[in-house]
């Protein structure tokens, strides 16, 4: 039996600084009434707030300095995303960050240097990865033929409606490739918006049938395989960080209610049946943050090893379960009001349902953890 025992966790000065700045920014720019105001809008976020985030350099945190980024590494994005989750701030930052990571890790910086610079400067980018709704499915059915013509459909493409650049994961001759498409290359009607349970998020089904690209828009080679694998893990980590922040905010909202609502002449927060689950959520949030920052310590700009993979999967499993439980308790503790759309508890339980599925749910990651930690066969 092989057990990975790397428990290293370090929060750098840069991460601490980013956490302080991001918490204050997100708290000021995304109070709950503004979150609700964006729910029914087309994009789900305020373009002015997004531009302020770009001006702060957040889109280039993990990108190399040679491309206009900060070169701080993907781990430095974690405190920013956690703060966004705490404020329920919906923007394309996660999508854009992961798209930049796919390019750089696939060795595309030399070929697509201008694209990396645009992403660092705030151009919205996203990855068209899934051919079906199953995150456990690794087969690629989207095809790029010998004439560089695409065929197939991608589903749950995050922020596709506002993306200026789409990185399409396809196969050519049985080998994975990454195809760069600009928004104007998509034919009219190619994007079909999904209706999501979490209204702070946006994703779509994108039809790629018949789109012809230039050879310079295709990135191939052995590095692409590793890059796709790494991005799946990094996506899980960033969603885990966001979910952890949302769970912490959910707990704050619930506790505030417990301290004001009275029943039978007593504050309901004084009842042990409510106090104990609140403490359980607090412990779970602390545990999820530990897992997330442990993973943030281990991920690097190079191909992720087994320690980093284990840490990312543990973080996603723990964070998903934590937000699930926090959202469920928030609805229950608010009583009949908790089941209404107007109650803020709804925002958290909806976020829990959405983030649980993104980049694999807890069961998916624990299945892989069994293989990693117990030498179990696939």
- Helical coverage, percent range: 40-55%
Largest sheet: 4 strands, mixed
**What structural category do the secondary elements indicate?**
alpha+beta
Query: What's the CATH class of one domain, please?
Result: Mainly Alpha
Q: Can you tag this structure with a few keywords?
A:
378 residues; alpha+beta; Butyryl-CoA Dehydrogenase, subunit A, domain 3; four-stranded mixed sheet; three-stranded antiparallel sheet; 11 helices
Fold and architecture overview:
This protein has 378 residues and is of the alpha+beta class. The protein has helices at residues 13-29, 32-38, 47-55, 78-86, 93-105, 113-120, 222-258, 272-298, 306-333, 345-357, 362-374; strands spanning 125-128, 143-144, 150-151, 153-158, 165-172, 175-182, 191-193, 203-207, 218-219, 262-263, 266-267. It has a domain at 224-374: Butyryl-CoA Dehydrogenase, subunit A, domain 3. The protein has 11 helices and 11 strands. The relative contact order is 0.12. The model has no long low-confidence stretch (mean pLDDT 93). It comes from Parahalioglobus pacificus. Belongs to the acyl-CoA dehydrogenase family. It holds the Pfam family Acyl-CoA_dh_1.
């Amino acid at each position: 039996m092989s057990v990975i025992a790397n428990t290293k966790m370090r929060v750098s000065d840069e991460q601490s600084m980013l956490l302080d700045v991001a918490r204050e920014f997100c708290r000021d720019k995304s109070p709950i009434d503004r979150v609700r105001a964006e729910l029914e809008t087309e994009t789900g976020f305020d373009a002015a707030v997004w531009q302020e985030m770009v001006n702060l350099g957040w889109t280039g945190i993990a990108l190399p300095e040679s491309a206009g980024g900060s070169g701080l590494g993907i781990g430095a994005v974690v405190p920013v995303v956690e703060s966004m989750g705490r404020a329920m701030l919906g923007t394309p930052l996660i999508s854009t960050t992961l798209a930049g990571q796919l390019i750089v890790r696939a060795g595309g910086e030399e070929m697509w240097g201008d694209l990396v610079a645009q992403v660092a400067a705030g151009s919205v980018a996203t990855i068209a990865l899934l051919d079906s709704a199953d995150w456990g499915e690794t087969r690629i059915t989207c095809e790029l033929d010998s004439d560089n013509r695409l065929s197939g459909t991608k589903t749950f493409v995050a922020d596709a409606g506002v993306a200026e650049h789409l990185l399409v994961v396809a196969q050519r001759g049985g080998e994975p490739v990454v195809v760069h498409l600009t928004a104007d290359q998509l034919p009219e009607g190619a994007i079909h918006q999904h209706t999501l349970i979490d209204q702070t998020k946006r994703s779509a089904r994108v039809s790629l049938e018949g789109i012809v690209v230039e050879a310079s828009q295709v990135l191939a080679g052995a590095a692409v395989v590793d890059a796709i694998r790494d991005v799946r893990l990094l996506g899980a980590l960033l969603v885990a960080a966001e979910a952890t922040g949302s769970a912490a905010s959910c707990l704050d909202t619930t506790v505030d209610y417990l301290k004001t609502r009275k029943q039978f002449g007593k504050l309901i927060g004084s009842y042990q049946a409510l106090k104990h689950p609140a403490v359980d959520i607090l412990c779970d949030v602390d545990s999820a943050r530990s897992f997330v920052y442990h993973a943030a310590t281990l991920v690097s700009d190079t191909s992720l090893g087994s320690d980093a993979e284990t840490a990312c999967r543990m973080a996603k499993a723990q964070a998903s379960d934590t937000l699930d439980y926090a959202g469920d308790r928030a609805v229950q503790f608010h009583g009949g009001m908790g089941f209404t759309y107007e109650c803020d508890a709804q925002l958290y339980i909806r976020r829990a349902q959405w983030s649980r599925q993104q980049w694999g749910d807890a069961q998916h990651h624990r299945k892989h953890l069994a293989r990693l930690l117990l030498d179990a066969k696939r």
